[in-house]
Design brief:
This protein has 283 residues and is α/β, with parallel strands linked by helices. Helices cover 38% and strands 20% of the residues. Bound molecules: pantoate (PAF).
């Protein structure tokens, strides 16, 4: 597997593949790879013969007081994990490579970026869309794979691709969970054993929402009330939101009539965690 650290070389290699008519699969990451990321890489490998994984802790998506400085970085370990997968190239640019002196431009997907996590992380999704568009421009992928765990990010990226006529197919990959139900995340390593135990209430709350839905409940407020009982029972869990929203517009729903995204965000022992499930009347 090749490791590329600069933009010009990455662009040249991607252009060469395109000239040869070879489709490019892409998985953007911030490193600290885990089973969730590796499942995205495997999925990309089924969709394209040449797979690029980016590893870049993107400073513009971290707010003041967030964990940019302490975000775990271990390129050697990440590359070892990728070697064992269907990854052909790891693109790990430096910050000055990605954000040249005097950079000013950013991409914003408007109000979608201000809902749910956007309320407590202003500017976060503008940082995400800006870096993802830059990566798309450099790597020129035919298909890019994103985790469904970051449901709002996936909705926003799909909107950006549609709005800006980008020639890339966006594929969502199912959330990978540990045996106790906790969604796999780079931030789980910050949880103490006790906090980790408390954190499983997020999944239990979502599962309760799903059970109610399967039993015929369609009123969002009643589902949210029941889910909150589960998270609020853990004093160490500080809930940011429990929401039932439209999976495309992210607008709050009163009544579920078709599809819904049930999303939850909370701080557990200082670590911010998110999780979600999709509900569909047709299924
Ligand atoms: O999901 C992530 O890890 C990041 O938001 C992404 C998509 C790699 C952009 O920095």
């Amino acid at each position: 597997m090749r490791v590329v650290r600069n933009v010009a070389e990455m662009r040249a290699l991607a252009s060469e593949r395109r000239r040869r008519g070879q489709a490019i699969g892409f998985v953007p990451t911030m490193g600290c790879l885990h089973e969730g990321h590796l499942s995205l890489v495997r999925l990309a490998g089924t969709r394209a013969p040449w797979v690029v994984v980016s590893i870049f802790v993107n400073p513009t998506q971290f707010g003041l007081g967030e964990d940019f400085e302490i975000y775990p970085r271990d390129l050697d370990r990440d590359c070892q994990l990728l070697e064992a997968e269907e990854c052909d190239l790891a693109f790990a640019p430096t910050i000055p490579e990605m954000y040249t002196e005097g950079h000013r431009t950013s991409v914003s997907v408007g109000e979608l970026s201000e809902k749910l996590c956007g309320r407590s992380r202003p500017g976060h999704f503008d940082g995400v869309t800006t870096v993802v568009l830059k990566l798309f421009n450099i790597i020129q992928p035919d298909v890019a794979v994103f985790g469904e765990k970051d449901a709002q990010q996936l909705v926003i990226i799909r909107r950006m691709v549609e709005d800006l006529n980008l020639a890339v197919e966006i594929v969502g990959a199912p959330t990978v969970r540990d045996p106790d139900g906790l969604a796999v995340s780079s931030r789980n390593r910050d949880l103490s054993p006790e906090a980790r135990e408390h954190a499983t209430c997020l999944f239990r709350a979502l599962r309760r929402g799903e059970e109610l839905f399967k039993a015929g409940e369609r009123q969002a407020d009643r589902m949210i009330g029941e889910m909150r009982l589960i998270v609020d029972a853990k004093p160490a869990v500080e809930t940011d939101y429990v929401s039932v929203v439209d999976p495309v517009t992210l607008e709050d729903l009163d009544t579920i009539r078709g599809e819904a995204l049930v999303a939850i965000a909370a701080r557990v022992g200082g670590t911010r965690l998110i999780d979600n499930v999709r509900l569909s009347i047709g299924e």
